Amino acid sequence: MTASSSAQLRLATVSAHLASSSADPVSSALETSLPPVQINRDTLSVLLDGEDQTWRNWMFDQLKDPLFEYKNNITKEEAVRLNQQRTRHLARIGFRPKWDEPKFKNHKKFLAISDAMSYYDNSLSTMGGAHYGLYVGSIRELGSDELKAKWLPPADTFEIPGCFALTELGHGSNPRGIETEAHWDTKQGCYIINTPNITAQKYWIGAAAETAFMSVVWAQLYVPDPSNKDQWQHQGIHAFLVPIRDLKTREPCPGVTIRNCGAKSGLNGMDNGRLWFDHVKVPRNMCLDKYGGVNENGEYESMFQSKDQRFGGQLVNLSEGRVGLSISSANLAKTALTIAIRYGQTRRQFGARHPGEQETLIMDYNLHQRRLYPLLATTYAQHFAARAIMRMRDVEDKDLKQIKQFHVISSGLKSLHTWHLLDTLQATREACGGQGLKSSNRIGHMKADCDVMATYEGDNQVMLITVAKGSISDFTPKKIPALATFNKARFQNQTFSDATLLSSEFQLELFQHHAYAASQRLAAAVEITRSQQTDKKQSLDSILDQHSALSQEFARAVVEHFILQELVRIEKESLSSSSVSPLTLVRQLHGLWKLDMDPNMVRRRYIDESVQERIRDLVGAAIHRVHENVDALVSAFGVPDHLLGPIAGDWVQANVVEGNQDI
Amino acid sequence: MTASSSAQLRLATVSAHLASSSADPVSSALETSLPPVQINRDTLSVLLDGEDQTWRNWMFDQLKDPLFEYKNNITKEEAVRLNQQRTRHLARIGFRPKWDEPKFKNHKKFLAISDAMSYYDNSLSTMGGAHYGLYVGSIRELGSDELKAKWLPPADTFEIPGCFALTELGHGSNPRGIETEAHWDTKQGCYIINTPNITAQKYWIGAAAETAFMSVVWAQLYVPDPSNKDQWQHQGIHAFLVPIRDLKTREPCPGVTIRNCGAKSGLNGMDNGRLWFDHVKVPRNMCLDKYGGVNENGEYESMFQSKDQRFGGQLVNLSEGRVGLSISSANLAKTALTIAIRYGQTRRQFGARHPGEQETLIMDYNLHQRRLYPLLATTYAQHFAARAIMRMRDVEDKDLKQIKQFHVISSGLKSLHTWHLLDTLQATREACGGQGLKSSNRIGHMKADCDVMATYEGDNQVMLITVAKGSISDFTPKKIPALATFNKARFQNQTFSDATLLSSEFQLELFQHHAYAASQRLAAAVEITRSQQTDKKQSLDSILDQHSALSQEFARAVVEHFILQELVRIEKESLSSSSVSPLTLVRQLHGLWKLDMDPNMVRRRYIDESVQERIRDLVGAAIHRVHENVDALVSAFGVPDHLLGPIAGDWVQANVVEGNQDI
């Protein structure tokens, strides 16, 4: 398939379809009083990705190199070697800022490059994320100038790849509980790192099995008690830079044992490994001691009294990882939707509507539109939410309030975005039938590779507890003045015009109403439990778990409100240049769909039954209007043809006898 | 890991947990007025799988042969070879009835064997299903005695494997549209089978790429018009037995082209192939002509006038395939839940509830219970629904009403069961964290292999249209007398005791109420569309698509009602031997969960808001009671240890340095 033949096929089919669609019984029956809308692809593209897409296109072009052709049916060892080659190649062509480049120099360039990258392949993103984000990031944020100068130049070029060894067999989403130990040995003047038992082995360490020479190892630090040298003082979790493989022989270093985590159902381009340390000596200067460590005099020193604060400061890179997942999720959802919708626009089945016509395009079935368009609308919403959290990340010198807000929202978006991606991959896979499973068509492969997103960098449901915990005291009239006028019956015993139901004001107020009502229900439940409890020491975490349905409902409501708020903000901004925003339609469908299908919002009966029914009618109308604009909505994503599979193009020609599908 | 060390670990953890649970704040806070229940594992096991489990255990034992050890990280070619070896081995030990054995001789034995098989691996089930179910089944049902005698003995032993070539690139869920042609050549006295264009190539044909020698090929039959020999008469779709590979050389037969469908994101043990026929001659006696074909005089003959009837009669095997999927789905869901719940009973994280205690078992978190127990309850429900559809299948000489009912319910169960399996695999995968992705722990591998179930043997949403279409005239007071007393306000403006809300009568009546109300809404919408339409020829299919949300809602409601009805029936039957049924608890949770979480049921507001809220409380209470009985509920499934992964056993010991996970 060439790009042009694919475009021609689509164009031909779409034109033929438009020409006949006035007689289409399905569209005419869905017509409502809503005026037609015509969305401009280019305006939308600028809203999504900015006017200057030079660097984004540069990166997309790099991915045309034969090295980046998708390879399927290979063993995990082959997948890892390929992933290493690709990572090294990208390092060579300079797709990341150098370690000593100031953080916000060329910021837009590197954002655009890294954004474009994320469409391509999750194994490659993950190898880059583990090495540059976690390994390099930890040294840059926490290490001494001496360590940076020595280890970051060969890390930048991927000559000396590293890994980030935090997770253990026994502790994943709860890193505070890790069991690896580091003891300060006064006599030898070094740290001794040790794996005390089976569950303390480092596990799932990305790039550890085959790729990495170095590792940032996290351990519970014990130093001799100054007042009683025979006793150990626990100082909490610290990070150490530890060589794990000999730079020449590639053999594990003395005292280090390395094993592979074995085959996984996806992401096999990433070599996850297991590490054990048998009393490995680590020099004093190899501690990443920005927030705490043993000083030249052999005494422990930290800027924080609290171990929790030390740990929080050190783990700021993990929040950045979550931001990365929110972005990739939205981008990969765009890719999957582009593939499935294009296929639906060229694939015919189930007979003709009228005698003598061709069979109906599957994208013309209402059933098929309902599968895909609400997901398309939410993908738009999540795109802008991902941009918002990137901006929050990039605020220099955040104050404490900003740090907390960033932590809470990045955790929440990570959950809702990765789940949305998995839902989108499932729906698009099914929408493409068996073709959705064919590796060369990408969706099935993406499903396998992205599944891990729901639990790595923190389990999604656990992340939502973080959101509930962090928001329960914030979602109050004191902190959000609009809530002061909250009235439980605000929307009841009323009818609303279609214009109101479709308006951003109504939708946003109802989302906020839901979040606030959910916070009140949760707060009341917590209060009752506290008043009844005999066990006065029960933690808030434990109480929130006891009310897990309410906690999850509240957390989701907070994050959904944030997402809609951002979408509305951009919609309004775009109004300044034109009287109609191209985002209005997707915002309407996104909002209506949640009001129609979210069992929690529906259960709470904020609105009357007739309003609820009318919302369902409007969902139908919004889907119809999306259908009329779907070419613009999909092509504005700008996913290039070489990142899509044959079914997004001329899949008939791709299946001639001569074509080699046996890969 | 040995079975006994695994059992010991679980026992030790569970006993320790029971000893401390009276002081457990989470359980005590969830207590309601409901009396405690204690479920007996053995009683439950008999209800599920009957008293005599000899043949089931025989099959489980066969799967201990080293040939059946799970292999990961292999190419698709290796996976296919392994799958062929396993299929041949099973044929040798006699796991299927011989072709000439009367259908219901030894019925229980073969049901038990095939049931046990389905827990093991979807690639193996699919290879067996394609060969024995579709290929052998077609010859047995439609072929002449001569063909049976010649081709079925070597098919039984898998010496001459065959495939079933119906699906084409252009037509999958809509087989009526296939384009492959068979013309009767009067001069040569044979059929000529031809692939007229690219979309007519046979596609996804299981076992065609490497394994099969023979194929049952489906084609549109054209015979010369008796009144005008220059014109062709279309006789509809017929099946032909066609050799595709030379028995000695394995080379494609003359005129046959074979290609592989390429790597897939799962089910790679199954070699899906593509087939083209270039004017291939097929002798007259190779037509599977039970319902129609050319006779000795060269004239077309059929017992049916209607092409649709001919086609329907021939495709009865496809309904049987759907039954198989309903059963396997339930069994694989049992496997995944057994793995995840056992892991949750031994995995600790997120700190201790009280100082000095071990960290909390993740299965003791309310959040974790809510992830898994509603799925456990629904899996019980689906187990019995699958048994019911098997009984419907096995009725000899079904009348037309029974055939229709079987077609409708088998289509509906196929959809709801396979989706439930995919939901269960996703939830259990996430519940196991990264371990859920490790191939050796099976869940990730099952996810990849089972994804196809949602669209093969018919796309699930399309299947639900079949259900809506088939039920809209049946879900009436005339056919279901109970509906005559239907009253829209039946449940409104009333409160109900907990005992009522938990009762099977209330739940079943509400499910039926929902299905009937949905049928009325859909019927009204169809009526309105018909009265407004200008295009008088619009088909019911097209109108149902126009109201796809209502059609899908109705179809789901019909199937959910069937599932609950079956569960209640078995629950009541089991009451005859005891005053308490061990199924009551799962039936309660299954019913309550749908009432609480199904957005359609919630949206319709059949019950008052306070009742809706009370249902949510009772969900919490039911989850708590399931937690108290979860060992019995899981172990009654009887999934043997060798079909579970290391995390279902002593996963700590499975991760010692010496263990080789690098597979």
From TrEMBL, chains A, B:
Gene3D superfamilies: Acyl-CoA dehydrogenase/oxidase, N-terminal domain, Butyryl-CoA Dehydrogenase, subunit A, domain 2, Butyryl-CoA Dehydrogenase, subunit A, domain 3. Residues 506-645 form the Acyl-CoA oxidase C-terminal domain. Residues 318-469 form the Acyl-CoA oxidase C-alpha1 domain. It catalyses: a 2,3-saturated acyl-CoA + O2 = a (2E)-enoyl-CoA + H2O2. Residues 64-160 form the Acyl-coenzyme A oxidase N-terminal domain. GO terms for molecular function: acyl-CoA oxidase activity; FAD binding; fatty acid binding. Pathway: Lipid metabolism; peroxisomal fatty acid beta-oxidation. Its cofactor is FAD. Keywords: FAD, Fatty acid metabolism, Flavoprotein, Lipid metabolism, Oxidoreductase, Peroxisome. FAD binds at T167, G206. SUPFAM superfamilies: Acyl-CoA dehydrogenase C-terminal domain-like, Acyl-CoA dehydrogenase NM domain-like. One of its GO terms (biological process) is fatty acid beta-oxidation using acyl-CoA oxidase. GO terms for cellular component: peroxisome. Its main location: other. Residues 163-280 form the Acyl-CoA oxidase/dehydrogenase middle domain. It is found in: Peroxisome. The active site is at E457 (proton acceptor). Belongs to the acyl-CoA oxidase family. PANTHER family: ACYL-COENZYME A OXIDASE-LIKE PROTEIN, ELECTRON TRANSPORT OXIDOREDUCTASE. This is Acyl-coenzyme A oxidase.
